[in-house]
């Protein structure tokens, strides 16, 4: 596929921002929508804004990203038009929700998967693409299309000026940034990745994909703050690509599947609990793993050379 010019990508994103404002402003009147030609990382951009006290709801999208960050600090870059790289920042009472940011990552993944499925089905019905399998979810922060990684999520949080702090039993708020990276065109996607465009003549742009995702993402995050992940657990489980699979786990600091380091544990994935923790039946019995403690891969793919990390922001 011939990559679009930076001018075309920016025009696409600005048009998408206008459509998103019309769709989101009735429920989110203070929402800011920013289109950037190039940025090191959309997550870094919004984290810095929060630390300066700019804590109104803000969605940022970039035509090009030069120093994106994945989970455990993995680096990742995006060329213009190939990958949707966007972040949403807003204040949230994360500490009041079971599982906090770890559970939020699962809720975000479910929102994105549902939105993608709905939009891709409409494209297929209108003759703009083949039927695709449902988007799968790999704990804790990956989107899968078929048996390949389509995208990733990165959740970060920080205290910020002007937000209420926790004190005397009252939960405070933190500035929370939700980063999303999704392969739209093959471009420089790592080997073994999936993408959304279905051929050389598919003109699907990153702006259109952004409009598919943001409205429901905003609503999902608002509901999550009051209800947590538990109501979403059955729907998330229906898309769980690890459930019932043999998995390998890496728990030591610095150890990761793509470093050829032998796994620290193995077992059979048994889904997740209501706080978003991974459940794995190991030789020591059923164990519960939180996001910051472990990296996990299906045992078959872990035995082969692991693919590089793909999108985050």
Identify the notable features of this structure and list them briefly.
BirA Bifunctional Protein, domain 2; 8-stranded mixed beta sheet; globular; disordered C terminus; alpha+beta; 313 residues; 28% strand; single chain
Rg is 19 Å
CATH level 3 topology of the largest domain: BirA Bifunctional Protein, domain 2
- Tally the helices: 6
Assign a percent range to the helix content. Answer: 25-40%
The count of β-strands is 13
Structural class: alpha+beta
What does this structure look like?
- The chain has 313 residues and is an alpha+beta fold.
- The chain has 2 domains: 232 residues, 2-Layer Sandwich (BirA Bifunctional Protein, domain 2), CATH 3.30.930.10; 64 residues, SH3 type barrels.
- The chain has 6 helices and 13 strands.
- The strands form 2 sheets. Strands 1, 2, 3, 4, 5, 6, 7 and 8 form an 8-stranded mixed beta sheet that branches.
- Helix 3 packs across helix 4.
- The protein is globular and about 55 Å long.
- The C terminus is likely disordered.
Topology:
Layout: H1 6-24, E1 32-39, H2 42-51, E2 58-69, E3 75-78, E4 83-92, H3 100-125, E5 136-138, E6 142-145, E7 148-158, E8 174-183, H4 206-227, H5 233-238, E9 246-250, E10 265-272, E11 278-282, E12 285-289, E13 295-298, H6 299-303
Parallel strand pairs: 1-2
Antiparallel strand pairs: 2-3, 2-4, 4-8, 5-6, 6-7, 7-8, 9-10, 9-13, 10-11, 11-12
Helix pairs in contact: 1-4, 3-4
């Amino acid at each position: 596929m011939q990559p679009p010019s930076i001018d075309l990508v920016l025009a696409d994103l600005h048009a998408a921002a206008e459509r998103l404002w019309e769709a989101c402003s009735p429920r989110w009147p203070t929402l800011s929508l920013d289109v950037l030609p190039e940025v090191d990382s959309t997550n870094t951009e919004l984290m810095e804004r929060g630390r300066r006290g700019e804590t109104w709801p803000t969605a940022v999208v970039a035509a090009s990203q030069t120093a994106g960050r994945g989970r455990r600090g993995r680096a990742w870059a995006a060329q213009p038009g190939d990958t949707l790289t966007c972040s949403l920042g807003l204040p949230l009472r994360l500490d009041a929700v079971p599982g906090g940011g770890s559970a939020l990552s699962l809720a975000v993944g479910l929102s994105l998967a549902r939105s993608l499925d709905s939009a891709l089905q409409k494209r297929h019905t209108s003759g703009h693409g083949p039927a695709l399998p449902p988007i799968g979810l790999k704990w804790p922060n990956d989107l899968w299309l078929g048996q390949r990684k389509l995208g990733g999520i990165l959740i970060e949080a920080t205290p910020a000026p002007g937000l209420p702090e926790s004190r005397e039993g009252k939960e405070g708020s933190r500035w929370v940034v939700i980063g999303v990276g999704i392969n739209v065109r093959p471009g420089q996607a790592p080997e073994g990745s999936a993408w959304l465009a279905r051929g050389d003549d598919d003109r699907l742009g990153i702006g259109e994909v952004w409009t598919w995702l943001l409205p429901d993402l905003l609503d999902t995050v608002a509901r999550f703050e009051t209800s947590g992940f538990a109501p979403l657990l059955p729907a998330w489980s229906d898309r769980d690509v690890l459930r019932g699979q043999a998995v390998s786990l890496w728990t030591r600091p610095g150890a990761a599947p793509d470093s050829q380091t032998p796994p620290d544990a193995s077992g059979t994935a048994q889904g997740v609990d209501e706080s978003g923790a991974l459940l794995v039946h190991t030789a020591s019995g059923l164990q519960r793993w939180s996001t910051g403690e472990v990296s996990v891969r299906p045992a078959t793919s872990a035995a082969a050379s692991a693919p590089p990390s793909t999108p985050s922001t």
